[in-house]
Amino acid sequence: MPVYKYYCDKCGKYTKKVARIAERHEQTCDECGCELELAVPDRVFTILDIDPYFDTGFGCRVDSRQHKKRIMRERNLVDVRDYPSHNVDEWVDETQEKARKMVEKEKRCAEANC
Questions:
Q1: pTM for this predicted structure
Q2: Is the pLDDT of residue 53 over 80?
Q3: Integer Cα distance of 16 and 24 in angstroms
């Protein structure tokens, strides 16, 4: 059975108790008999979705999948694994259209000296 850390509002003390998962919210204080509240853990562990690595293609360290997606978004790159294979033709058309619009926008900006 797991060990839980509890806090008593009346006594102001912390205590640890072994309890079944189903009974973890039904504990009482040994000193005053009041209902105990589950305490917030002292340590919170961050579980990484991937191990950090240096990506030679990006030329930088990648710490998580979200970080990789942000880098790719900043560099206008896409991951083909994000698109189902049966929609590849539609995706290619969308991507080409987006690229064409970006080029046109850059040309207009260059002409207007933005």
A1: 0.36
A2: yes
A3: 11
Quick count: other Cβ atoms within 10 Å of Cβ 38? 13
What's the burial of 5, exposed, middle or buried (CB within 10 Å: 0-12/13-18/19+)? middle
Q: How far is CA 30 from CA 2, 3, 7, 35, 50, in A?
A: 19, 16, 12, 10, 44
* Segment 60-81, tens digit of pLDDT: 999 888 888 899 889 888 777 6
The H or E element that residue 95 is part of is helix 88-111
Q: What are the phi and psi torsion angles at 70 (to 5°)?
A: -65, -45
Nearest to 62 by CA among 85, 79, 45: 79
What is the CA 39 to chain-centroid distance, rounded? 24
